[in-house]
From TrEMBL:
Native source species: Jannaschia faecimaris
Ranges for domain 4Fe-4S Mo/W bis-MGD-type: 8-63
Stretch forming the signal peptide: none
GO cellular component, one term: oxidoreductase complex
One of the GO BP terms on file: respiratory electron transport chain
GO terms assigned for molecular function: 4 iron, 4 sulfur cluster binding; formate dehydrogenase (NAD+) activity; metal ion binding; molybdopterin cofactor binding; NADH dehydrogenase activity
Family per record: In the C-terminal section; belongs to the prokaryotic molybdopterin-containing oxidoreductase family.
Protein's name according to its UniProt entry: Formate dehydrogenase major subunit
Highest taxon of the lineage: Bacteria
Length: 703
């Protein structure tokens, strides 16, 4: 995929990678995508990053599964033991009927023998809203419980928990494009240049026209050169730093008294709590001097219009919910929500993680974040789902499900498009758990690391091979359109879900994703005034949309919050250190994350020629001084070890990493970052602490 001008049709759709949700024009010749251009979508205004422009050719990779596959009788014990050049070596081809019968009978047998809770499901944020909705419905209706989750658990579950608790909604309060009207922006725990590159261009333009950018991150991000303040604070001290900033605002009475009185609750308790976090006391802990903390506090409080952006550096901690609570409190203190150019914006990860969450692909809430514990909600779904009884007990989350699998309590899984054999923390534990399963059905486009453990693999359609709606980080519901057919016998996910649902005893009758969308509208107030036809013609509508003509509200909560008495809440946050601290054995800090060219576990981008050529091999980043101390040249090999495991890989010199820190991308199976990560969970969001593990770094030659 490159610069071809020779194409016979063009299809408007959405980029399959990050949550920015760039609209693309896919140029197609002979049923192959030959070129990709950015078009004028509300989020990208014609722009694309390297993944969106050059990353679509994964769909043509020779490793695509084009026929259903069944584990061979003579295959060795389940494990990550296949030849990467021949990933289906332990599987044989099957007909759809044979594969679907085996898949469904295995799940039904477990349900009959042990009850519905013997089976759990992971859905995918790479699916459309309709597919996510169908997946959670299949588990809830077919197995009678809520043990269904997806990768939101690994990225922004803590942010969503804090937003739901304190502002009454789990989505952003303002689109990132509102930055055009802002005076000041904080970007904390996020590296948009690499992870949300098109959103980053808007942030850079903001800084270039004189907007004040404040970056807070333990790593020095590329965006720091545009920043007025760069606070490279000690990893894991977010709560201490943010509370110290708010301490200044409270003590110097810089807060917006009128806004606090009119729109919030809990201020006085919060004010008393914050008094202990003086800049002088917190400076050493955070590694940021007290005067800088005061300067940032005064700048933020003095701004007319300010926005706060955050990423997984905030959320992926055992105190991730507390981190997000602090950011919400900071915005409330200064009345920076509900007006153009103000707001809270957690930058969502996958291209449809917002939509999949909205559609109920999470264990404690039904579509539109309606609690399973609420009888009125269960009655609504009893009505819509033909008498289905919804389990009133919130379900288990991703890591909790994998623990139950390990302990033998969950015996079967249906995994659609997720790759826990790469993405779970302490992934050796997750791989052992997957190997324990009596029955594993994987639906995907490649034999992923997780599919290695499957009994049945159902070949699915890639994102450009199907139509449906998706929702980006800005709350923009957009229409993705099928550009090319699924290869061989592969089918779109929604079609496979319907086949499987009917084989496990459900009576589903959908002929088109439009019918699923219309059913979703029956329970999702967020989709009011958004119709399939509107999306076909307008391509994107932001929710909430107030009328059939309204393109949607970019900024929400100007006249109150969807909480008791319309008020948002201050929730005090205590400082909690990371779950494991460096010590003599493991003296450094490991932070994991993404790289510009590679997406999550690499199953797509490592099969894209251009992206793989730019970043072909596993690497980690260390400060040049650390490399010198280790006696390792840039490009040399190091061994990283934590209490959970070790990996050996190439080291890159990177001054943005502190001398006691190593940054490790998680896309590379040959040096899987999650062999090292700590599975400790945030108690509220149940998100693992991917952003802090104690690690030992050595020269690989010395080992
Ligand atoms: Fe795709 Fe995100 Fe890049 Fe846009 S910024 S082209 S959505 S990866």
């Amino acid at each position: 995929i490159g610069d071809s001008k020779d194409f016979d049709r063009e299809v408007k759709s959405i980029c399959p990678f990050c949550g920015v949700g760039c609209q693309v024009s896919l140029k197609v010749k002979d049923n192959k995508i030959v070129k990709v251009d950015g078009i004028n979508g509300p989020a990208n205004e014609g722009r694309l990053c390297v993944k969106g422009r050059f990353g679509f050719d994964y769909i043509n990779h020779p490793h695509r599964i084009t026929k259903p596959m069944i584990r061979r009788n003579d295959a060795p014990e389940k494990g990550l033991n296949v030849d990467p050049a021949n990933p289906w070596t332990h599987f044989r081809e099957a007909t759809w009927d044979e594969a679907l019968d085996l898949a469904s009978n295995g799940l039904v047998d477990l349900r009959s023998l042990y009850g519905g809770k013997a089976v759990a499901g992971f859905g995918s944020a790479k699916c459309t809203n309709e597919e996510a909705y169908l997946f959670q419905k299949l588990i809830r209706q077919g197995f009678g419980h809520n043990n269904v989750d997806h990768c939101t658990r690994l990225c922004h579950a803590s942010s969503v928990a804090a937003l739901m608790e304190n502002v009454g909604s789990g989505a952003v309060t303002a689109s990132f494009n509102e930055i055009e009207a802002a005076d000041l922006a904080i970007v904390i725990g996020a590296n948009p240049t690499e992870n949300h590159p098109v959103a980053a261009t808007f942030l850079k333009q903001f800084a270039k026209r004189g907007g004040e950018l404040i970056i807070m991150d333990p790593r020095g991000t590329a965006m720091k050169r545009h920043a007025k303040h760069m606070l490279q604070f000690r990893p894991g001290t977010d709560v201490a730093l943010l509370n110290a900033i708010m301490n200044v605002i409270v003590e110097e009475k810089l807060y917006d008294r009128q806004y606090i009185e009119g729109f919030t609750e809990g201020f006085f308790e919060f004010r008393d709590h914050i008094r202990a976090f003086t800049p002088d006391r917190m400076a050493e802990l955070c590694g940021i001097d007290a005067e800088t903390i005061r300067a940032v506090a005064r700048d933020f409080a003095g701004a007319q219009k300010a926005m706060i952006f955050w990423g997984m550096g905030v959320s992926q901690h055992i105190h991730g919910t507390d981190n997000a609570r602090c950011l919400i409190s900071l915005a409330l203190l200064c009345g920076q929500i509900g007006r153009p150019g103000t707001g809270l914006h957690p930058l969502r990860g996958q291209n449809n993680v917002q939509g999949a969450s909205d559609a109920g692909l999470i264990p404690h809430v039904m579509p539109n974040y309606q609690s399973v514990t609420d009888e009125a909600v269960r009655e609504l779904f009893r009505h819509i789902w033909d008498g289905t009884e919804i389990d009133p007990t919130p379900g288990l989350t991703v890591v909790e499900i994998m623990d139950r699998v390990y302990r033998g309590e969950i015996k079967g899984m249906y995994i659609l498009g997720e790759n826990p054999a790469m993405s779970d923390p302490d992934v050796d534990h997750a791989r052992k758990a997957l190997a324990h399963l009596d029955h594993l059905v994987v639906q995907d486009i490649f034999v992923t690391e997780t599919a290695n453990f499957a009994d049945v693999i159902l070949p699915a359609g890639a994102f450009p091979e199907k139509s449906g709606t998706v929702t980006n980080t800005n709350r923009q519901v957009q229409m993705a359109r099928q550009a090319v057919p699924t290869p061989g016998e592969a089918r779109e996910d929604w079609r496979i879900l319907i086949e499987l649902a009917n084989r496990i005893g459900l009576d589903w009758d959908y002929d088109h994703p439009r019918e699923v969308f219309n059913e979703m509208k029956m329970s999702m107030r967020s989709l009011h005034h958004i119709t399939w036809n509107r999306l076909e013609t307008e391509s994107a509508v932001t929710y909430p949309s107030l009328s059939n003509e309204d393109p949607g509200q970019s900024v929400v909560f100007g006249d109150g919050f969807p909480r008791r008495a319309g008020r948002a809440k201050f929730t005090p946050a205590r400082f909690t250190p990371p779950a494991e601290m460096p010590d003599d054995r493991f003296p450094m800090i490991l932070i994991t994350g993404r790289q510009l060219e590679h997406w999550h576990t690499g199953s797509m981008t490592r099969r894209s020629k251009v992206l793989d050529a730019v970043e072909p091999e596993a690497n980690c980043s260390l400060h040049p001084a650390t490399l010198r101390k280790l006696g390792v040249p840039p490009g040399g090999w190091v061994r990283l070890s934590t209490r959970r495991g070790s990996v050996t890989l190439m080291a890159r010199a990177d001054r943005s990493v502190a001398t006691d820190m190593v940054f490790l991308p998680f896309a590379f199976v040959e040096a899987a970052a999650n062999l090292l990560t700590n599975p400790a969970l945030d108690p509220v969001g149940k998100i693992p602490e991917f952003k802090f593990s104690a690690v030992k770094v050595e020269s690989a030659e010395a080992v």
